[in-house]
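[Q] Does anyone have a clean structure-token version of this?
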Amino acid sequence: MTIKLLAIGKTDSSQLQELIDVYDKRLQHYINFEIELIPDLKKTKNLSEEQQKSKEGELILKKIAPTNVLIVLDEKGKHYSSVEFSAFLQKKMNSGIKQLVFLIGGPYGFSHEIYAKASGKISLSKMTFSHQMVRLFITEQIYRAYTILRNEPYHHQ
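[A] Here you go.
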């Protein structure tokens, strides 16, 4: 199985990007992991939130193959502990899917079409984080999940 993290926009902070790169590199020992960024929309001043979500949704859907399993990172999604999240990933691997895609949307969330395509929603916290921080948090949690599955000492309970 391959895991792809798909996100709108780039990471402006070089410090955050360095940390994301650390976990990205660590993950390569466990699984094929990739991060793909979709550029921010241009000329959005005259677009409503719904129009922005719709345009972002069109760009996102072009990046998702019919066989991909899409999980959106959404504040209204399911909450997992790190151990529960590792079990979630194990279940996905056991199901034989080829690519699992975690999606971080733009500032206004997702279009109706994205929610319709998604197989599930996950929330990292009840708190709100910047989209750039979410990239770091989900990448670290995927890494943590694999160390849990391998019984490695990274995660403590």
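[Q] Thanks! Anything notable?
[A] Residues 75 and 123 are 5 Å apart (CA to CA).
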